Amino acid sequence: MSDDLIEYGAWGAQFFEFAVTEERILAGVNAMAGQPINVGPLGVGPGRVAKVSATGQIGTATGHRTSTEPVAFEVKIPVQLQFELDLGLDVHRFDADIEIPLRLTARARDDLAIVIEVEGPTGRELVVNLKAKGLRASVTQYAANVEGELRRFIAKYVAREIAKPTVEAARIVDVAAAINRAAGGVVPKASGRGRGADVSEALADELKDAEDAFQVDPEAEGT
């Protein structure tokens, strides 16, 4: 028996680490970097009388692997928003720097597919740095619970995007399909037909297709 042979379980663990890397995960998340977010107007505060409108964009995500069994990552997505609170007689303006945490886990499915599960944040898990423009705006933000409403909206927005059917489909890496498409069967490398390289390229294509997993709809508005 060759010295370089390993158990099936060890081979599978190494395959997951190869297929689902930090670079590929971040490439997928950063597909939405620079995309705009347009919010509102939304009713906030007591009776939803006050209205909030916001514009901004998504920044470049950072992240790291947190475990190898399961293969999991923590990713942080920065968002910058500029928004207005319309009280009817007065309009107050704010800037917000927001950090959205995501937890991603690669799972094995019985049809030889890799599924990337995404756990979105709760409102409390968001990091929000809210800056009021002017003293009156600073006082008003607490009366209208602007930060609380902003946390609620962002958490709901992320959950809605993750749940979209197109996003769910993009988070599946069909390993079996990649192998079948490239090889059509098991052909030893010694045959000189170069099938091994074809399989690798096909798998790379599957992983590339999955990199748009977090594309968001720039026209989406909160409710």
Topology, element by element:
Blueprint: H1 8-19, H2 22-29, E1 36-44, E2 50-58, E3 62-68, E4 71-86, E5 91-109, E6 113-119, E7 127-132, H3 135-143, H4 146-162, H5 165-170, E8 172-174, H6 175-183, H7 195-209
Antiparallel strand pairs: 1-2, 2-4, 3-4, 4-5, 5-6, 5-7, 6-8
Helix pairs in contact: 6-7
Question: How would you portray this structure in words?
Answer:
The protein is built from seven helices and eight strands; from the N terminus they run ααβββββββαααβαα. 34% of the residues lie in helices and 34% in strands. Strands 1, 2, 3, 4, 5, 6, 7 and 8 form an eight-stranded antiparallel beta sheet that branches. A hairpin with a 3-residue loop joins β5 and β6. The protein is α+β, with helices and mostly antiparallel strands. The chain has one domain. α6 packs antiparallel against α7. The N and C termini lie far apart (63 Å).
List keywords for this structure.
223 residues; alpha+beta; eight-stranded antiparallel β-sheet; elongated
